[in-house]
Specification:
The chain is an all-alpha fold. The protein is built from six helices and no strands. It has helices at 8-18, 23-33, 36-53, 58-65, 69-81, 85-97. The protein starts with 7 loop residues before the first helix and ends in an 8-residue tail after the last helix. This is YerC/YecD family TrpR-related protein.
Length: 105
């Protein structure tokens, strides 16, 4: 875990997020907390990560998501050398409903 982000304020934010019980509640909360561009950037990174795990090329990903190659590269670095947060979520989604993501190869 990155100690730079581990603060009391971040703990409070995560505690708040963990109380959300539905996509509708997520929409309400994140629309208040984030700007539209921040939320779209987060969702774009998540889509990039899913596509990278599916073996898509940078060109395919850029065309589908509109992400820059720099963003795709950053997400790829997180997938390969990060804290395995993406893979944890992909695995859980895949186990829950069979459609969320692909497991790490």
């Amino acid at each position: 875990m990155n100690k730079k982000i581990k603060t009391e304020a971040v703990d409070h934010l995560f505690d708040a997020i963990l109380t959300l019980e539905s996509p509708e509640e997520c929409y309400k909360f994140f629309e208040d907390v984030c700007t539209i561009n921040e939320l779209l950037s987060l969702s774009q990174r998540y889509e990039v990560a899913k596509m990278l795990r599916e073996g898509k090329t940078y060109l395919e990903i850029a065309e589908k998501t509109g992400a820059s190659t720099a963003t795709i590269s950053r997400v790829n670095r997180s997938l390969n050398y990060g804290s395995d947060g993406y893979d944890m979520v992909f695995t859980r989604l895949n186990l829950e409903d069979g459609s969320g993501g692909s497991e790490k190869e």
